[in-house]
Design goal:
Chain lengths: 256, 256
Amino acid sequence: MAKSVQSVLRAASMLRLMAAEVEPVTLKDVATGLGLAKATAHGLLQTLVEVGFVRQDEAGRYLISADLPELHSDQLDLNELRSIGLNWTDALAARTGESARLAAFRDGAMVVAHHVFRSRPTRQRLQIGSALPVHATALGRVLLAFDPGAARSIQGRELERFTSRTITDRTRLMAGLPAVREQGWSFTLGEDEPGLAAIAAPVRDRGGYVIAAVEVHGSADDVCERRDQPRAEHVAEVVRAARRISALVGREGRSP
Amino acid sequence: MAKSVQSVLRAASMLRLMAAEVEPVTLKDVATGLGLAKATAHGLLQTLVEVGFVRQDEAGRYLISADLPELHSDQLDLNELRSIGLNWTDALAARTGESARLAAFRDGAMVVAHHVFRSRPTRQRLQIGSALPVHATALGRVLLAFDPGAARSIQGRELERFTSRTITDRTRLMAGLPAVREQGWSFTLGEDEPGLAAIAAPVRDRGGYVIAAVEVHGSADDVCERRDQPRAEHVAEVVRAARRISALVGREGRSP
DNA sequence: GCCGGCGTTCGGCATCGCCGAACGCCGGAC
DNA sequence: GTCCGGCGTTCGGCGATGCCGAACGCCGGC
């Protein structure tokens, strides 16, 4: 296959990110959302402004100039996402011996697209199609770090406490996100269920837009190597599975 | 002003070129329309296919995937074009001592956006808003060379003869267009009016899309230095004016 | 059957995109 | 009122990416 033009992929992903938002987005939202330097995002955004696809409000934030239906219809539905990601999610579960999930942010909630569970006596049930709390899961941390819609979904809302370890203070929750962006994965322990540890990583489109997250989870004894630290080989497997799924996104020819 | 990203400008201009066509366009149309190598146009088009903005039919031609209203509304109307181009068109007339015109292809016809005429006893009248024949003018040659819509407008049509020098054979007309693309200007002599010579050059947007053409015209004695050859300094002035007008396109902030 | 034109691919080169650093502005905190 | 941190913007250096010439394979017309 011929090589794609990276700048155009990125510009399209910026449009997609902005199309997913009702409110104007900041330069920072776009840069962090696509994993780009501010200057890079700025250059691309200014070009999109110049060609009329995007405009900038008087506060310096960006919003899409016109409704581009193609950007909305282009969004993978959960079944497409599941079919793209199920092999690697299954493989991830097999290689780590833990349960695995693939989830995306849709219509104001994080929803499970695929779930592989292992024959372990932890409290498990098939969750495909279910919504999960973004503030109390590793998957949710990833989406909060990269998806401005996810971040907005918890604004002005009381964060529900599931365990004694659930972070319900928004400032404290947000304070951990730069580290997630930096290292490219997130880790939670006992926040949605006592004794449950999880590691998640972002799934991106060709332009860098985070369209989903994939994770493994299991009991703390299995997922952690030292207290409060995830096993390095599990982290590597999650990041690898996320990259593999990302590589498949946008590869199949889109149906007309 | 910050630098723009050339690839994104080009991609947007490709969309704009395709939005102006009802029929699918060929790779060649896009490449010649934007003045790019085939391989370059191919890479950008494949990326646009990948992000879903363009699709390719089974014959290998390209068409826009979805109606993007922004691309249509973005087209400069003739008044905007006139206000952008009038200073340089006036200056062109002054520097060459000839009449000058700025024209664009709109709704199936080439229309004059601005006209500066000199106090010469040739048959002149203000033509702003008038349609001109694309096959018999230097302006028209430019648009035929670069705008697939202009080329399509004369397909299946009898070309009107204005003088004994008017080219009415479409194959012969088209045969001269590669030279126009190569040298970046066109020249006609006595095709729309006896004894009238004209030199025209393309006005492009930042992505390379030809949105208009600018020309000087006058009697053959004044515009030609040798029989059937335009004066080199007039050619240079026209090309320069076209570049200057091009540089202004897309510079002013677009109104929301 | 042949040939020309088109879409596609490849690889080398240098231009352009990328991004770190710095700047200026602005709003919030004190 | 002042100070400071965060944001959008700009600049310039570097190397990665985009660009394009050349070549290829396919297909349709003669």
